[in-house]
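Meet today's protein:

…
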Amino acid sequence: MFNFAVTDDLAGLLALAALAIIVPALAEKMVFRVGLGGRKGRIRAALAIAAFVLWHPVQVWLGLPMAQPIFLEPGFLAITAALGLACTMAYRTSGSVWPPVVMHWLVVVAWKGLTVPV
């Protein structure tokens, strides 16, 4: 469930924003867009997007520090798939990893800045 409200923890949000440009934005783009998705092939892109979506529940199951229970919810995973598709298209269209990195980073920062855990 998503509850939207602007965070009152500006220092925490800025710290998260500084970290999120590296993990998850750049790190996940290097793995899922550059490494797995590549620049060509629809099947390769689809498999990379699926791996990106599945990576989120795996983080919860492994107990990784950035994982959250919401990573198991179908609505969140649908949004994750849409982000994966948008990032794949941005990478393939631009030829650069930076547009999808910035897209992912903006989504994470906006999400953390606007949602309140239930």
